[in-house]
Each structure stands twice: as C-alpha cells, then as structure tokens.
Amino acid sequence: MDRTHGQTEQHEQPTGGSAPAAPTAAATPAAAGPARVVSLTAGGFALTVNPVDGSEIEPLRPGTEPARPAKRAAAARAARAAAARPPVLPGPTAPARPLLEREEERERLVRLLGRGRSVRLTGPSGSGRSALLDAVADRCEGLAPDGVVRLSGYGQQQPGELLHTLYATVYESDQQRPGRAELLARVREIGAVVLLDDLEMGGTALDELMRATPECAYLLAATPDTRAPSDDSHAEEVFLGGLGKADCLELLEAGVGRPLTDEETAWAGDLRFASEGLPLRFVQAAALLRQRDELNHHAEDDEEEEPGVFEERPRDAVHVPLPTLAEGAAPAELLASRVSESARAALRIACALGGELPHHAHLPALVGDTHADTAVAELLACGLLTPVGTRYRLASGVARQLEEVGYGDTAPEEARTAARHYAWWTGHASVVPERVAAEADAVLAALAGADVVAAVLLARTAAPAFAASLHWEAWERVLRSGAEAARKAGEVAEQAYFHHELGVLALCEERLDRARAELETSIGLRGALADKRGTVAGRRALALVVDGETAGAAASPPLRLEAPGAEAGEAVTVATPAAAAPKAAPAPKAAPVPKAAPVASEAPTTKVAPVAPGARVAPVVPVSAEAVTRMTPVVPVTGRSAAPTTLSEVFEDAFPLNPKPAPPAAPRPAAAPLPAPGRRRFVLLAGAGALAVVVLGTVVSLALSSSDSAPPEQGPAVSSTPAVTESATTTVNSGIDPAPEPPVSAPPAETSAPMQSAAPTPGRSPARTPSRRPSPTPPKSPPTTPVSPAPTTADPSPTPTATGEPTPTTTTTQTGTTTSVSPVTDR
Length: 827
Known about the structure:
Layout: E1 38-42, E2 45-49, E3 56-59, H1 74-83, H2 103-114, E4 119-122, H3 129-139, E5 148-152, H4 159-170, E6 176-177, H5 180-187, E7 193-197, H6 204-212, E8 217-222, E9 236-239, H7 245-256, H8 262-275, H9 279-304, H10 325-329, H11 332-337, H12 341-352, E10 356-357, H13 363-367, H14 375-381, E11 385-388, E12 391-394, H15 398-404, H16 411-426, H17 433-438, H18 440-449, H19 452-468, H20 472-489, H21 492-508, H22 512-528, H23 532-555, E13 575-577, E14 627-629, H24 647-654, H25 679-706, H26 722-733, H27 800-803, H28 808-826
Parallel strand pairs: 1-6, 4-8, 4-9, 5-7, 7-8
Antiparallel strand pairs: 1-2, 2-3, 10-12, 11-12, 13-14
C-alpha cells in the first residue's frame, strides 16, 4: 500500500470477508474494519484469538482433534523457500557477486552433509558465510527426502521456536501448533538438510535441537564468539577465513566494473592487510571507487560545459582522490555521505531501530518520500546492508560507525514515528498476520524505543497478529513489553489484557505455574474495573489450569520403596497396596527366647510377621502402581516379648527411666518376667549417695588435719577404714531408701557360711571389727597414720558384733561421725 496516498495495492486486498479499508492514512484500528477473530489449535486446546476482550481457550471437543499432518510436496517446499528469501527490491537488478576461493570449502561441506554429518561453519562477520550457504543449498537439493530447509537463528536462544519453524516448513499444518510431545514425535521423522544461518545459541541448547532431529544433517553458520556445541554432538568444524590477494583484486574489479590502476592496486593490497581479506570490506571498497568515478566524471563534464549564470557550481575542477586506508577500513561514514537523502533517512531509521531496516514498502511513509523504496537497493549495493532471513539489517560495524558521526541523535523521534506507523499498519484489516510476522524484528525494535503511549497502542494491535501467525516467541515478547508500558502509563484495562494473554500463552505451552500467576493477576485487575466479560474469560482459563494441575498430580506415581532385608536392631519399611491384598500364609510361631537374647525379627515393623530362626521367608508380593508407602518410626529394640501396641509402651521402650509403670502386656507363657520398673532408679540413687559420702569424708578429713585444735580426749573412736566409714554413713542415709543396698565403692565379700567372718581378699585390707576401746591415736589423714587391722582370721569363732544386731559401739561410732561433721558445716 502507498502509505502516502492511502490506496490499497493488489497484494493487500481485504481477506476473510472484512470490509475495505477507509481511504485515509490516519485510520485507526477500530475504523479500519471489524476485528480479526482467528481460531487455532494449540496442543489439546482450541484457541480463539479475540483482539477485543482477550483470547478464549477451551479443550478440544471429542471428534474435533486434527488429523495427522502430511508432509509438503517438493513444489510446496520450493514455493515456501522462495517466500522465505529476502524480497526483490525495486529498480535495476544488482549483478551477482562471484564466490571466490570457496570451491574447496563448498565441496567439503557437500561431502560431509551427504554422509549425514553435521558441520559448524565458523567465520567472522563479513566473511561470506551466507553466500557459501546459498552455494551449498544448490548442491544439496536431492540429498535428503525432505529437501533443504533454510532457517535463521538470529535472535534465537532456545531451540523451541526453531523446532516449530522446522515443523511448519516440512508439514502442512495451517492454523495448528502442536504440543511439545507431538512436536518432538513429528520432528524426529524429518529427514532434511537444515541450513541454519546466523546461529547465536550453542552448548546444551544446540545439543537439544540436534537430539530432537536425529535424521537431519545440520550446516550451522556462526561467528567465532558463539558458544560451541558439546563434544557429544560430534559436529565437524570448518573455519572460513579471508581471501587471498589475487581474489581480493578480482572481487574489487568485479565490483567496480573496470580494470584497476596501479595506484588502486597498491591501495587494495594495503586494504587487504588491514581487513584480513574479508569480502565485505572489498564490496564496500568497490562502492567507494564507483562513487569516486562518478564524482570525477561529473567534474569532467563541468569543465566541458560553461556554467550558467544562476548555477552555484564551482568553476574550478576538483579531483577526488583515493580514500585513505582508515576510510577503507571503516567506510560507513564516507559511503553514507555520498548516497541520496532518502537513503540517509533510511539509515537514521535503522540506527533508531537497533540496526533493523523496515520493509521497503514502509519507507515512503516513514521517510516522507514516494521514491524512498529505492533506497534499500542503493544501500545494499554499497555494502551497508546485509540480508538476514526475509529482511535486511545494517552490516557488521556499520551502526557503530554511523552513530559516532551523529546518525543516532534523532533516535527517539524516529522510534516514536516508527511505532505509531506500525500500530496503524498491524491493526489494519487488509494486512494478513503472516506479513506482520515477517516484520516482527522491526516491530519489536520500534516497541522498545517508543514512549509508553505509543508502545501500549502498538503492543495492543500487534499481539493478536503475532498470535494468529503462530510466531509465539514474538507474541510473548510484545505482550511483556506491552504490560510494562501499560503499567508505566497507568492503563489498568490494557495491563489486564496483556496479563490475560500471557496466561493463555503459558497454558498453551503447558507452563501451569506461570499461567496461574498471570491469570490471577488479570482477574484481579478486571475485578477492580468491574469488567464482567473479561473476568469470566479469565476464570474459564483458570479452571483449565486447575484441571491440568489435578491431572498432573493424579498422573504422577507415588513413592514406591522395596522392602529391604531385615537386619538386627532395625525397623523395616515396606510398601503395601492400598487395595486389599491377598493374605500370605501365616509364618510358624517362634520358639521361646530368653530375655538376654532378644530376637531381631521381633523389632517393631510394618505389616511384617515375625520370622522364627530357621523358618522359611515368604517372597515379597510385587507392588502395584497404586501402592501407598507407610512409614514406621524406628525405636530402640528392647527385651519386650511382643511389639508395642500403644503409645505408652513405645515411650516406655524409648525412655526406660519413666517412674510410671507401663501397663501390663498380654501374658505369654513363654516370655520371661519383666524387671521391676523402679529398681534401676534405686540403684542409681544408692550409687549417688555413696559417692556423696566419699566426697564428704574427704572434706572432713582435710578439715580435721588442717585444724590447730586438738581432738577431744574422751571422744569415741572413729575408724579410719574406708569400708567402715562408708558402711556407717550408708546406715545413716539408708532411711530414705525403702531397702538397704550394698555400697557401690566396696565390692561385697563372699562368705563361706552364715554368721562367719569373711576371709581376707589378696591385695586388699580386711574389714575392721568395731572395738569398745577408744583408739589412742588421734584421727589424722590416712597416709600419715595407717591403722593395722586386728587379725580376726585366726579365730574361726563368729563375732556377734560383725553380723548380729547393731551394738552400742556402732551407735557411738555413728554419733561420733555426726559430731565430727558439725564443725565443718558451721564453717
């Protein structure tokens, strides 16, 4: 369409029964015609793209599932490949550039691809990778059953969109976007030679792409700074370097169209050394020489003709010299200064859009010149543009050189103008979604550089077109940019629309967590606006998310554990089916086991019968898919004859110091009697009391030895034997305990007969018998005043004071001991 006069061209007729466009350039999307409603099939959902209220999604009805797609024929593939090439530019056809010094690389690439090997072609920007791929594509036309597929990897960091593009190229799948499972199943059947130019991804992402298509042979063209594939990909590496001196001169002569002079030959040699022989530099150098010839030819014409009176042409002829070596290495500024004004305006637009040049049909409306569409061919001949897929963009290094000389000063104004123009164009009813998808990079660049108002308007009109064209990566990017711009502009309704679309997109791609978050945000915003229709649409989509989460939770199998081998002192965890399983044969009863040797199989288990020694173990029943794992806490194995059945029994086994007696278990004739529950505590208390007495006796002895006062003359005798002292003190403290216990520190002596004194143990002093006579030696520390025990073993007669009832002597000893403790306590 001629955007200046607003007249519809032949290839932009209204489609789908829509009304013709209004003949005005300022038409709004609402005035251009009715909204385009497109129905798609995305996985297991039916998607209706509604630009007004938001897309509606519902499950596919039974019987409406799409049939298995068929592969395209050779003629259909050729037509699609021709449509994927850069558009034909108006004006004279530019001569084809020769492919020099690439015969060896071309033959090697064709040979490797014919063997089914994947190759990575590495070369710097401007080395002629795209031209070499064109030459290889012509030679590999009949190698694979699905032909040759050309893809562009520019701006692609994930393999998902490339797989969808490959699927749409090979299969006839109009208005259908398969799910991930179906996509992987279909692309595995594709056998083609895939030429992937301008590759930007590598590593695991590239490995995933190649593993998903094992029947394809890839030719990957990338720059040296692109991440290389892993070693598991087994891709060959071919490096593409610069041209030789003779080939550089031949390429320069072909571009200029005449033989070179000696001065130009020497200049070309220096340029080859500075640029390392890159073909792009000599294409630009040929353009510099052509512009120089045109300027010098005009100067000769001016000398022959007499200048007019009103002409402002110089009378002195000016000879344009050869460019310097610096201008030849960075020629963008000099080349741009010698092109037309429309071409310079197109360069400013390209700098504002990040290097992306709009389609030549948009330049008349953007520049304001009806003949601005010829500027693309002019810039392409100068080497300032390079083809990328179906579009053109600035060549490597050109944008930086132009921005340094002021071409980027008007970038905000140019981006705003481009955004408003694309907002009108993408919303026009005569523009099909496929054309919008072909212009996706320029639209996204204009969206990134526009103000918030223009960005919201452009995102609102471009999003439905990207969704209908199945270019969902651009759909997601424009939705996110639109949501951010709407938030900054305060447009709550538009923000709710963008979040709703993001939720629907995530639901179609089976990202349920993202879908729930986006849809809940949209429902909240529309609820604040009292938008009933939008809220209902959001709740319907959210219900599908809930259904998907429920189905995913039901499809995921539960945890299943195999029964490990039973070991001593361990609890066994087994998986038992939730349904009633057939009962196993009962195991034979175990024989009575003594208390000192508990059976390991009697440890607390889950659904495991006790196994007797020597009994035959039944095989483990296989666990079904509906098995439920039941966990049993592991508790210490005790001497209990039966497994604990109550919580109190479990705590009694784990904490045996509990003073409360455990409830009696079911009587078993073969079980041994249980020990008294409080006996262990009494033993510990007796030991603690004996230890306290030992410490107290040591303190008393030290206090008496350090005292200067003499002991009482007629006091009762205090025995210095540790056994007697401990026995007397234990007798005093035994009133607390219900039954006297033997002291821990003094081992009990065995007697041969009752009412007889014990025999002395070798290496130990015998127990001293209490005496009525007071000791003539005052009590002192044991090392200084040893006491010799009386020989009681000579007389075998029993001593009444040692084994009979307590005598007054024992009472006096206790009183003396108590009296000697009192001064220490007072201190």
